[in-house]
Amino acid sequence: MKKTGESKPTEAELAILQVLWDQGPSTVRQVQDVLEAERGTGYTTTLKLMQIMFEKGLLKRDDGQRSHIYAPAVSRQKTQRRMVGDLLEQAFGGSAHELVMQALAAKKASPEELREIRQLVEHMEREQR
Question: What is the distance between the alpha carbons of residues 68 and 103, in angstroms, rounded to a whole number?
């Protein structure tokens, strides 16, 4: 078994993680109900994926009840940072500037998002002084 959070989730695994981050610890049935409505995913597919994710260290499992309860092994923020870091290196040659420019060009940011971005940049500038 890999170390917790070491594996990069696939698209299907990320969908399961999103459900668990949003709903909290859940059974396979609870996760599958959401995925079926969103993606048409069947129960056996969800079960198999969650078992694989447990083996990969992406999920934790509580065996204390009749139905196993699964939870993410790593936070949403840590997973996002790892994926952005991988993307930054693979697609942008390590250039944070290029990544940010392309992200802002790809989807128009709301005034609130722009305000938060400015605050983050100002905070980072203060820390570098």
Answer: 39
